[in-house]
C-alpha cells in the first residue's frame, strides 16, 4: 500500500524524502548484489549502502568500526531476506503463498514469524474499525492494480460487491492454541504489503540492539524508516536527524522536514501509483469497506516509535482521516501525524517540543 523514496540532503544534514511504496513483494533478482563495503577506512568510519530487496530499495547508514558496520549491514540484509522468503506472495514457495493456496481447504500451521505479524494485523484491523485489512487483494485485482482489467474501465457495483464478499479479516478463523489459520470463504488471500516493510525494519533494528551489534544508524526500507537510539551522537554530531517529507503535489521535492532523535517514519500516498480511467486518476489505496479507492487525501506521514505501527497507521489514517489520527494520538505516545489534502494540511502531534510545533517546518 505504499511508494518509493529517494535520499535527499537538506542543508548538509542527512535526510530522507519519504515517498511511500506500494511495490509488491518480488523475488530479489539474483543479479543484484548486496555488497557490504566500508566507505571510510579509518578506525571508526561511516558505512552507507543502498541495495534492492523485497521489490524495493533499502538504504542503511551506520557509524562504527569496520567489523561493527559490516556485521550490522549483513544482519539487516539477512533479516530482510528472511521476511522476503516468508511473505513474498509472488513466490509460490513462500510460506504466505502456501497459506493462501491451502487455508480454505484446511487449517494452515504458521511459523512463529508469520503468526506474529498476523497478530499485529489483527490488532490493526480492530483498531482501524476494519479499514486496515490485509485481505483486500481481491479488490486490488478487480480494479487492476495487481491484475490488469481487459479494458480500462470502472468495475460495476456487482463486481465490487462480489469482490467484497471475499474480503474481510473477520472471515479468517484463528486457532490461537494451535497457531493455525483457516479461510472461511473461497478465493480469499492475505497480502501483507501494507505492514511487512515496517515489520522488517523493526525486526532488523531489534536484532541489532538485542545482539549488541550496533546502537546507531538509519535504516530505510522502501519508505519505512527507523532511527536507532544513539544516532544523534554518532552520526548527527549531537544534532537531530532531519527527515524530509515529500510534497505529494510535486513529488521530486520536499514540503519541509522534521527533526528526530530516535523514531520511525512512514508515509502513504497515491501520487505515484494510480490508474487513469476516463481521464480521472484512481489511487491504489483501497477502502476495504466500500470497495473503492480513497480519493480525498493526497498523503499521510506518521512518526512514532515502531516502524510496524507507523506502516499500518499511515494507511489507516489515509482511509479514515482525522478521526483515526485523533484516536491514534490518544493511545500511542510520542506520535505525530500529517494529513495532506488537496487544499490544506492537517497536523497532529503529542510529541513534546521545546520551542515550536512538531510539524512547524512543513510548508506548502
Polypeptide structure, described:
The protein has 364 residues and is of the alpha+beta class. It has a domain at 95-183: T-fold (Orthogonal Bundle), CATH 1.10.3980. The protein is 29% helix and 26% strand. The chain has helices at 66-87, 95-102, 112-127, 137-143, 157-164, 196-210, 231-234, 307-320, 322-331; strands spanning 6-10, 13-17, 45-53, 56-64, 108-109, 172-175, 180-183, 218-221, 224-227, 241-246, 254-260, 264-269, 274-277, 280-283, 286-287, 292-293, 299-304, 336-340, 345-349. The strands form 6 sheets. The protein has an 8-stranded antiparallel beta sheet, with helices on one face. Strands 5-7-6 form a 3-stranded antiparallel beta sheet. Strands 1-2 form a two-stranded antiparallel sheet. Helix 1 (66-87) packs antiparallel against helix 6 (196-210), helix 6 packs antiparallel against helix 8 (307-320) and helix 8 packs antiparallel against helix 9. The chain is globular, with a radius of gyration of 20 Å. Mean pLDDT is 85; it is low at 1-42.
Amino acid at each position: 500500500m505504499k511508494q518509493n523514496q529517494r535520499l535527499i540532503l537538506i542543508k548538509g544534514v542527512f535526510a530522507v524524502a519519504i515517498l511511500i511504496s506500494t511495490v509488491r513483494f518480488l523475488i530479489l533478482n539474483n543479479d543484484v548484489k548486496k555488497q557490504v563495503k566500508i566507505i571510510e577506512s579509518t578506525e571508526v568510519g561511516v558505512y552507507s549502502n543502498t541495495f534492492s530487496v523485497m521489490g524495493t530499495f533499502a538504504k542503511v547508514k551506520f557509524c562504527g568500526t569496520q567489523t561493527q558496520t559490516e556485521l550490522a549491514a549483513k544482519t539487516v540484509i539477512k533479516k530482510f531476506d528472511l521476511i522476503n522468503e516468508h511473505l513474498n506472495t509472488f513466490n509460490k514457495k513462500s510460506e504466505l503463498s502456501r497459506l493462501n493456496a491451502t487455508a480454505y481447504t484446511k487449517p494452515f500451521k504458521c511459523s512463529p514469524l508469520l503468526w506474529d505479524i498476523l497478530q499485529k494485523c489483527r490488532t490493526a484491523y480492530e483498531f482501524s474499525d476494519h479499514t486496515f485489512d490485509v485481505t483486500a487483494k481481491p479488490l486490488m485485482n478487480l480494479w487492476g492494480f495487481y491484475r490488469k482489467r481487459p479494458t480500462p474501465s470502472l468495475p460495476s457495483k456487482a463486481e465490487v460487491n462480489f469482490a467484497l464478499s471475499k474480503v474481510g479479516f473477520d472471515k479468517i478463523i484463528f486457532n490461537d492454541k494451535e497457531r493455525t489459520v483457516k479461510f472461511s470463504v473461497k478465493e480469499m488471500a492475505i497480502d501483507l504489503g501494507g505492514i511487512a516493510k515496517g515489520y522488517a525494519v523493526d525486526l532488523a533494528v531489534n536484532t541489532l540492539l538485542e545482539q549488541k551489534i550496533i546502537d546507531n544508524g538509519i535504516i530505510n526500507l522502501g519508505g519505512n524508516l527507523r532511527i536507532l537510539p544513539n544516532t544523534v551522537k554518532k552520526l548527527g554530531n549531537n544534532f537531530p536527524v532531519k527527515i524530509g517529507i515529500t510534497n505529494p503535489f510535486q513529488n521530486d521535492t520536499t514540503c519541509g522536514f522534521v527533526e528526530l532523535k530516535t523514531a520511525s517514519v512512514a508515509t502513504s500516498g497515491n501520487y505515484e501509483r494510480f490508474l487513469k480511467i476516463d481521464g480521472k486518476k484512481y489511487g491504489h489505496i483501497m477502502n476495504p469497506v466500500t470497495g473503492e479507492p480513497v480519493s480525498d487525501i493526497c498523503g499521510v506521514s506518521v512518526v512514532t516509535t515502531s516502524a510496524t505501527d507507523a506502516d499500518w497507521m499511515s494507511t489507516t489514517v489515509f482511509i479514515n482521516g482525522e478521526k483515526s489520527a485523533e484516536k491514534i494520538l490518544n493511545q500511542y505516545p510520542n506520535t505525530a501525524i500529517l494529513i495532506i489534502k488537496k487544499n490544506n494540511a492537517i497536523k497532529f502531534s503529542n510529541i513534546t517540543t521545546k520551542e515550536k510545533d512538531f510539524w512547524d517546518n512543513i510548508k506548502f
